[in-house]
Amino acid sequence: MNKNLIKTTSFWITLGILSGVLFLNLSFSKSLPDILESTSPSVVNIWSIKKWKAWQEKSSILGMKRWRQVIKTGFVPNGSGVIVSKDGMIITNFHVINDAFKNNQKLVVEFSNGNTSEALIIGFDLDADVAVIKIISDEIFFPIKIRKNIDNLRVGETVIAVGNPQGLGQSFSIGIVSAINRQFKNKNGSFIQTDASINPGNSGGALIDKKGRLVGITNFIESTSGGSQGLNFAIPIDVVMESFELISN
Question: For 29-45, what is each residue's pLDDT tens digit?
Answer without folding.
Answer: 578 899 899 999 999 99
